[in-house]
Specification:
Blueprint (H helix, E strand, L loop, with lengths): L9 H12 L9 E2 L2 H7 L10 H12 L1 E4 L4 E4 L2 E3 L4 E3 L4 E4 L6 E3 L9 E7 L2 E4 L8 E6 L1 E7 L2 E6 L3 E6 L2 E6 L2 E5 L9 E6 L21 E6 L2 E4 L1 E5 L14 E6 L2 E4 L5 E4 L4 E4 L2 E4 L12 E5 L10 E5 L2 E4 L4 E5 L5 E7 L2 E4 L7 E3 L2 E7 L2 E4 L2
Parallel strand pairs: 1-2, 2-5, 3-6, 4-7, 5-8, 6-9, 8-11, 9-12, 10-13, 11-14, 12-15, 13-16, 14-17, 15-18, 16-19, 17-20, 18-21, 19-22, 20-23, 21-24, 22-25, 23-26, 24-27, 25-28, 26-29, 27-30, 28-31, 29-32, 30-33
Length: about 375
């Protein structure tokens, strides 16, 4: 079909279609039918573009809100998000048509000022490639007040990231299933959810800009999610470009999730001063030959920010399975963790129950009611 023009008044066009076809379903402002639906039902080609992506962007530009229709299938490329935008894809299926992900935004300000107040809800987000995307699917940098909710995502390769958070705060990922496509190579340790520092060494696109300021992540909540990858979730070291003193990530909450690491730690939180890990099932399947990458739940300090010494790490009511250890707290610098609470966990270790816990480099360690098991 020949493209004629972008939608100017999508709501009125859809209302016309609804009237012509006698649909009993209500049509609300911001509702967007797929091109496949419109090609089948529209009376005039002039009412829409033949591109889901163009229609999707036009609707967002108009009102900052778009609702995809349950049961319909869309084909989208990358959308550049703007502050305040809301996307409801509940019940819809979305295929990615490129190799550069679904969502990004313009990076213009530091101190969490580049993007804010974005919500993406629902939808089954898939890749047209059998091997998945090789880069980042959903990317936020220097952003705040972001919510991803009720999404099923299986689109990124094991070597890519489904969600990448660079110097973000007040982010919630809730009730999501995040799975990789393809296979994990033997030496891959990339994570599906990456919590990262604003540094050119970890995010080369920031090189030579004011955005590479060493900014860290704060108040990141991941709850009621299923995440699988080479690593499932990782907060990267904040050493970044070597600036001293670096800062620590803080306020990370991982709650009621099922996390699986195929070739690296299911959960690794590095240079993190305050965190709560509660009620999760954390399983690292990588072999003992992977050494530290075989740990189930891994806390580690690499940097020099002593704020971690006033912080608190709480790990409670989890089932954790790992190779070298189920749980480790360690430091590669002269900086310590503050208070570490390890309580009411079931800890399984391939090296034997006696090796399930390795805790060092802390000011205070509370180790209570943990059950240690061999894991074969």
């Amino acid at each position: 079909m020949k493209t004629v023009r972008l939608i100017k008044q999508m709501v009125f066009g859809i209302l016309t279609v609804a009237a012509l076809w006698g649909t009993s379903c209500p049509v609300h402002a911001g509702t967007l039918h797929s091109v496949a639906y419109l090609q089948k039902h529209a009376s005039e080609a002039d009412d829409y573009s033949d591109s889901d992506q163009k229609n999707f962007e036009a609707e967002l530009e108009k009102d900052g809100f778009v609702k995809l229709v349950k049961g319909e299938t869309y084909h989208l490329g990358k959308t550049t998000l703007q502050s305040g935008w809301k996307i409801d894809a509940t019940g819809a299926t979305i295929y990615g048509s490129g190799n550069y992900g679904f969502f990004d935004h313009k990076r213009t300000k530091t101190n969490y000022g580049s993007l804010s107040n974005v919500v993406i809800k629902g939808g089954k987000w898939l890749s047209e490639s059998k091997n998945g995307y090789l880069k980042t699917l959903i990317h936020f940098t220097h952003a705040q007040n972001i919510k991803l909710q009720d999404m099923y995502i299986k689109a990124t390769n094991y070597e890519g990231h489904t969600v990448e958070l660079v110097a973000c705060k007040n982010v919630t990922i809730e009730n999501c299933t995040i799975l990789p496509k393809g296979k994990s190579s033997a030496d891959c340790a990339e994570e599906q959810i990456q919590i990262d520092v604003a540094a050119a060494s970890t995010y080369p696109a920031l090189k030579g800009t004011k955005l590479a300021n060493g900014g860290v992540c704060k108040k990141i909540t991941i709850k009621n999610c299923t995440v699988k990858g080479s690593r499932a979730i990782c907060a990267n070291s904040t050493i970044g470009d070597g600036k001293k003193p670096n800062k620590c990530h803080s306020g990370i909450t991982i709650k009621n999730c099922k996390l699986t690491g195929e070739n690296g730690e299911a959960l690794a939180l590095f240079d993190t001063s305050n965190a709560v890990v509660k009620g999760n099932k954390i399983i690292t399947k990588s072999p003992l030959s992977r050494d530290s990458y075989s740990i189930g739940c891994h806390f580690h300090i690499f940097g020099t920010d002593k704020s971690s010494e006033k912080g608190k790490i709480t790990v409670m009511n989890n089932t954790i399975k790992g190779g070298r250890q189920a749980f480790q707290v360690y430091s590669h610098s002269n900086v310590l963790f503050g208070t570490v609470v390890l309580k009411n966990n079931k800890l399984y270790c391939k090296r034997g129950a006696e090796n399930a816990i390795l805790a060092d480099c802390y000011k205070k360690f509370i180790n209570q009611n943990n059950k240690l098991h061999n894991w074969s």
